Amino acid sequence: MATAKINYADLMDLHKNYEDNKWPILSQAIGKDDTKSVWFEMNKDFRDSLTDILADEKVNGIRFYFTAYPGTVPGDPDLENRLSIGYVATTDDGGKPVDDPAGHSPMNHGHIDP
Length: 114
Hints:
Blueprint: H1 8-21, H2 23-30, E1 37-39, H3 44-55, E2 59-68, E3 83-93, E4 96-99, E5 107-108, E6 111-113
Antiparallel strand pairs: 1-6, 2-3, 3-4, 3-5
């Protein structure tokens, strides 16, 4: 499926499908409500990252990775075992997108919304 705009109602239908089918399984597995969404604050680091990616003509996309915090997170036990999301810019390798962490620092976390 190619990248395409969808309306907000369709996005919420897809999210409800996640909440109804995936989220309960993940929450049960970690013994607490798992992440439902991740919000990236438009702070300087995030803004600079996006600006750099958009200005780089070699970049052909952004790959989003589902990530998970370990079972122990010193100073923030609320994050323990929870899902998060990170991203990295991609470049073209003969028609295949490949990660470009050397060209653009990956970003992770945002704000977890359990």
